[in-house]
Amino acid sequence: MLPALPGAVVEEIAAFGRYAASRGWVPATSGNFSRRVDARHAAVTRSGIDKGAIAPGDVAVIAIDEPVPPRLSAETPLHLARYRSDAAVGAVFHVHTVAATVLSRLYEREGVVRTDGLEMHKAIGVRTHESTVEIPIFANDQDTFALAARVEARLGADPAVPGYLLAGHGIYAWGATAADARRHLEGLEFLLACHLEERRLR
Ligand SMILES: CSCCC(=O)C(=O)COP(=O)(O)O
Ligand SMILES: [Zn+2]
């Protein structure tokens, strides 16, 4: 039996949705969000809803280790794969930012976007700005089960960066809590925005 959906979890997801919408990160119903409910279950947003105006009925509780029920987002496997791979992952947020979408296309062949020497590296757990961060990029794929397997195989047990890009699509980030996932997403997005701006100015 599935556990009840805690109101606090819905509110965390809805609050992130409002924030993401205020930043222009979830245009045209894009994006999807999830939050671990317990060791075996997660709450995920339903498909096609306005992610800036999430209501309790827009979030479903599902089993992490079971097949994805109908009418949920096609991207649900990408969320569940993160929870399966790492028991410490408590929230996964996916948004469609311009910087993530553009840079993931420009660097798809390299399979990585690199940023150097930025203080914001610390937001994703890097100790010093004197570092190079490599944000992984994966080719987009409508077969999201195959895509999730490819992502997890490359990320491994201890990913260096708490996020990745899907080429021409957007960005995924995660953390132990919703606040951690949001901080990681904000940090990664800032790094990408800086990289894009530097390329423009050069
Ligand atoms: C309108 S964007 C296309 C689908 C997508 O990439 C996305 O993030 C939203 O999908 P969902 O099914 O979760 O609403
Ligand atoms: Zn998407």
Automatic annotation (TrEMBL):
**What remark does the entry make about the cofactor?**
Binds 1 zinc ion per subunit.
EC no. given is: 4.2.1.109
Q: In which pathway does it act?
A: Amino-acid biosynthesis; L-methionine biosynthesis via salvage pathway; L-methionine from S-methyl-5-thio-alpha-D-ribose 1-phosphate: step 2/6
Q: Which amino acid positions bind Zn(2+), per UniProt?
A: 94, 96
Any GO molecular function: methylthioribulose 1-phosphate dehydratase activity
Q: What are the alphabetically sorted keywords of the record?
A: Amino-acid biosynthesis, Lyase, Metal-binding, Methionine biosynthesis, Zinc
As cofactor, the record names:
Zn(2+)
Gene Ontology CC: cytoplasm
The keyword Metal-binding appears for this protein: yes
In UniProt terms, what function does this protein have? Catalyzes the dehydration of methylthioribulose-1-phosphate (MTRu-1-P) into 2,3-diketo-5-methylthiopentyl-1-phosphate (DK-MTP-1-P).
- Protein name in the entry: Methylthioribulose-1-phosphate dehydratase
